[in-house]
Amino acid sequence: MDSSPSEELSRLAYSNVNMKAHAEERLLRTLLTDYNKMSRPVANTTDVVLVRFGLSIAQLIDVDEKNQMMTTNVWVKQEWNDYKLRWNPQDYENVTSVRIPSELIWRPDIVLYNNADGDFAVTHLTKAHLFHDGRIKWVPPAIYKSSCSIDVTFFPFDQQNCKMKFGSWTYDKAKIDLVSMASNVDQMDYWESGEWVIMNAVGKYNTKKYECCTEIYPDITYSFIIRRLPLFYTINLIIPCLLISCLTVLVFYLPSDCAEKITLCISVLLSLTVFLLLITEIIPSTSLVIPLIGEYLLFTMIFVTLSIIITVFVLNVHHRSPRTHTMPHWVRRVFLDVIPIYLFMKRPSTVCKDNCKRLIEMMHKKVSPTSIWAEAESSLFVPQPDGQGTPARSPSPSLCLPMEQHLPKTQLLSASSQYSILLEEPHLQDCFSPSPSPSILLSLSPDGPRGHPKERSLSVQHALDERELPQGVPRCHSCSFQYCCVQEEASQSAGFLRIPSPCGMAHPKPTTPFDRPSPVTDGKEQQLFLMSPSMKLAIEGVQYIADHLRAEDADFSVKEDWKYVAMHFRKHFLFTDDGITRLSFNAERMYTLLSGLYKYMFQKDEYCILILGLDNAGKTTFLEQTKTKFSKNYKGMSLSKITTTVGLNIGTIDVGKARLMFWDLGGQEELQSLWDKYYAESHGVIYVIDSTDEERLSESKEAFEKMISSEVLEGVPLLVLANKQDVENCLSVPDIKTAFSDCAPKIGKRDCLVQPCTALTGQGVNEGIEWMVKCVVRNIHRPPRQKDIT
C-alpha cells in the first residue's frame, strides 16, 4: 500500500531526529571515554587555562546592616576551552553542541572569597553547554551571602559599596587566568528591590600575592554601589523624631503654674529613647562610627534632661514666698529692673489682692454722730397722729429693743447678719428692762445698698412673737445704726456703746440729733448700752481677720515678684540654652539629615551623553542649541566663535527629573582613539553626521562602525542625527540609512533612532533630546551614575 507524501516526510523527519539522537549519544560516549575530569584541559602543563568570567544579577535580596552582609541572587557566567572535548560535526550528523552534566567534566574551582555563610562555591550544578570546538559555557545560578562593610554615618540617606570577589581557590595565575566578559554586571534580568537601588556595578581584574604562598592569584572583584531608598525611614523615623524633639521647646512656653511641665519633658525623653532603640536594632553593633541620627537623638535626650533640671529650678523659683525665702536686693535689682530693659519686656500693671481693702477702709472711716442718729431714727416705725405710720427700712440690719417684760426669751440670729453675738450677758438685759425676760441679739452685718461699698453695722434684734404681744402695743420694726468710734480711745476705756432710745410709746415722735440733749447733760434720757465681752471678742476677731488679710496682700506682692523672676528664667533658657546650644551641637547633624531628605525629594538622576562624529559635523553647534533651549537664562555662544572641538566640551541640562551631562569629543582622526575612554561612563550616544559632506561619508561610517562594535557600549541608546538638513542637495534620512545599512547587525538590541536635524536653527533638537531622555531613563543596562539635587 502506497503511503502519502506527508507520511513519507514525517517518517523521514523522525528518522533524522532519531539518527541525530543516536549521534549525540554516540558523541557523548566517545567524548567521555577515557576522559579524566581531574586534570586541567591543556595540551602542555605550561599552558594556562583562560576562563572568561562574568556576573549577572537577578535580585538584590537583602542587605543586613546588623550582620554586615549582602544577599544576592546571581548567575555566574563562565567560559573556557577543553581541547579534549572537540569533535567534527560532520561525523555526528552535524551536531554542533550538546548539553552535558557539569559533574562529568573539568570545571574551574572559582569561589566567592568574601562569602559569609560557608557556601563558597556554586551549590546547584546545572548542565554545561559544550560546543564542537571545545568551548564550554556554564551559567549556574547561585544565592550568595557576601560580607559587606556597612557605613551607617548618613543613615537612612546612606550609600554602600558592597564587593563580591571571585577567583580560583587552588590554581594560581600560571595555571588559570581570569578574563572579564564585561566591565559591568549584567542587569538584563534584574528584579528591582523596594529598599535599595543599584547605582553602579562594575568589575575589576586584580592580582594578589598572599603571605601563605609565593604564587600570584588572580581575581575579579565586582563593586556594587547601592543606595537606600529613605522614604520608609523618613516617614516612620525622621519626621516623628523631629516633631517630638520640637516639643521640648513647648516646655518653656507652658506657664509655671501648669503641673504638666515635668510630665511633658519625661514623655519626650521616653519617646526619644524608643526611637534610639529602634536605630540600635538596625545599625551594626560597632564602635567605629555612630550614625548622625543617633547622635542627634542622643544630644536631644541630653537637652531634654537639662530641660527637666531647668524646669525644676524654674518651678522652685516660681513657688517661693516670703515665708520660705527672702528675695535678695541684687535679684530684685537685676531681674526686676535691669533685664526687662534689655529683653524689651514690660511688666504688667501691679495687681494686688483687695480682699480686706474695703473692710479696713470701713473700720478706719470716721462717721459723724449726726449721720449715725439720722440713720438710726429713719429706720423706726413712728405712728402718725392720724393713726397711720410710715415704715422706713434701713438697708442694714436693725436694732429693736421691746420694753415689755412679757416678751419671749428666745434669742434668734438675723438672716442678714454674718457676725453675731448669740447670747448676751444678763447685766446687758438690765440696761433695757427690769425683767430678765427680754432677749437682745447683737450682730455685725455686711449688708449695704447696691452700688456702694459694703459697710459693717451693729444690729441688736429681738425675736418677737405676734401672739405674745399685748394688745394696744404697736409692732416694733427694727432700728439699726452704724457704729463708729469717733473717740476710739474713750469708747474702749468706758466699755460701752452709745445707742438711741428704743422705739415704742416713750417716743411717739422722732426727733433729730440736734434736739436731743447730750449724754453728759441729760443722762437719764439716754440709755447707755455697755459693750459685752462677746462683743469685744467679735470685734477682736474682725480685727484679726483684717490683719491676716493685710499680711496676705503683702505676701501676694512678693510672690508676684518671684513669679516674674521665674518668667525671666523661662524666657532666658528658651532662647539661649534650648535654642543656641542645641543649634550649635546639632547644626551639622540636622543639616545632613535635612539635606538628605531634600536630596531625596528633589533629586535628579544624572546621565552622561556622548556627542560623537567627525570634525565640522556640527556637534558643538548642536550642544549650544541644546543648552539654549533647555537652560533658563542661558545665551548660546555666538556662531562666529564656534570652532572645531579640540579635546572636550561639557554641557549640562535638566529635563524633568533627569540631568543630562553632554561630553562633546573632538572628531579628528587622532582624537578618535580617545573615544573609548568615555564609553564605560556613558548612558547614551549621539552620533552627528554631516549630510552635506558626501566625500567624508565613508570615513564617518568607518568611525561609526568602530564605535558600535565596542562591547562596553552594549545596550546603550543611540541617536543618529542627519545634520544640516536646511542645505540644498543634502543627504536625506533614507539616504543615510542606506549608506549605513551594513552597520545594522552590529547595532544589536538597543534603542536606535535616525532623525533629521538642523543644529544651526535648532530644528529637531527638542525631539532628539526628549527621545534620548526616555531611552536612558528606561534603560536597565546603565543605571544613573549618581543622584544630584536641583
How would you sum up this structure, described in words?
The protein has about 800 residues and is α+β, with helices and mostly antiparallel strands. About 35% of the residues lie in helices and about 20% in strands. Helix 2 runs antiparallel to helix 3, helix 2 runs parallel beside helix 4 and helix 2 packs antiparallel against helix 10. It is built from 15 helices and 25 strands. The C terminus is likely disordered. The strands form 6 sheets. Strands 1, 2, 3, 5, 6, 7 and 9 form a 7-stranded mixed β-sheet that branches. Strands 19, 20, 21, 22, 23, 24 and 25 form a 7-stranded mixed β-sheet that branches. The protein has a 4-stranded antiparallel β-sheet with strand order 4-8-11-10, with no helix packed on it.
User: Largest sheet at a glance?
Assistant: 7 strands, mixed
The best one-word shape is: elongated
Total domains:
4
The CATH homologous superfamily of the largest domain is called Neurotransmitter-gated ion-channel ligand-binding domain
Radius of gyration: 55 Å
Kindly state the mean pLDDT as a whole number?
72
Count of beta strands: 25
- The fraction of residues in strands falls at 15-25%
Spans of 5+ residues with little confidence (pLDDT < 50)?
366-470, 472-529, 786-790
- The second-level CATH architecture of the largest domain is Distorted Sandwich
